[in-house]
Amino acid sequence: AKKNGKGQVVFCSGKMKKDVQEKMMLTSSLYRALEKHELTLHYQPQVSAESQAIVGFEALLRWNHGELGPISPAVFIPIAEETGLINSIGEWVLLTACVQNKAWQDKGFTPVKMAVNLSLEQFRSNNLEAIVRASLKQSGLEPRYLELEITENIAMRESDDVIPCLHRLKSLGVEISIDDFGTEFSSLGRLKDLPVDRLKIDMAFIQGISQNSKDESIIAVMIHLAKKLGLKVIAEGVETEVQLVFLRDEACDEIQGYYYYRPLSKDQIECDIYNISTP
Ligand code: C2E
Ligand code: CA
Ligand code: CA
Ligand code: CA
Question: Is 151 a pocket residue for ligand 1 (Cβ < 6 Å)?
């Protein structure tokens, strides 16, 4: 036990010490991960509930640490956010995702949207709009094929000038969706002021299908709300046929989840999905 600044005794267990050391280690290697090309993007297909055609991809970061192997985004994204590294990483993600989507279009594949996740820090950095604009310009991707995913938590913030920034992004012609929808206590009234195109129903609700009738009711209401507001709606984390059938019956537009596809590397997408008819 040690004394902290206030003279109180605090305990630092071996486990805590190990966690802190591990985090410091990850933090320092994350600084170099971009230049060492340890970061890559995987792409998870999004499917039309009606036609089952692929209508988009979500770009998801992967970190293959030189010594430790793959590190989950749930671990390193928060570190990237705390250190501000998410700004340079996020810039790389935007450009890479746009370039990849344009490359697939140039190969003759049906144009679909590419969704990219944004962190709050990127809104605070004041140059998000310029970065999005530059990614579009440099890749040559038409804006309507880029979608920006912001969490409900970001979208509902009163401060940080998020809303004006969203309007400026929207006027570039990109699509905007609200991620993890339903997980925050948001004021539904604010939805009408947000320049958004799509709600993404959080996986937690999808897991309740056939388990919890309250989750089912909430999903039905969220889909209904989206339709009434003229928004599209996508369900994420769909793993079973039962979940799919429920969502289709409720007229959910799009489906993302392991039932159809896991996040795949560029090569896997090209071989498993696009190469079906090539010699
Ligand atoms: P998210 O944006 O909510 O992404 C969905 C997560 O659910 C992904 O986890 C995806 O692999 C996973 N998933 C998709 N379908 C299923 C399913 O059917 N079942 C289950 N159990 N999981 C499914 P992942 O790739 O580990 O990413 C975790 C989080 O890390 C993301 O959550 C997002 O918040 C963050 N993240 C990932 N890439 C980026 C990025 O480029 N920028 C930022 N700012 N955050 C990112
Ligand atoms: Ca997302
Ligand atoms: Ca999500
Ligand atoms: Ca999430």
Answer: no
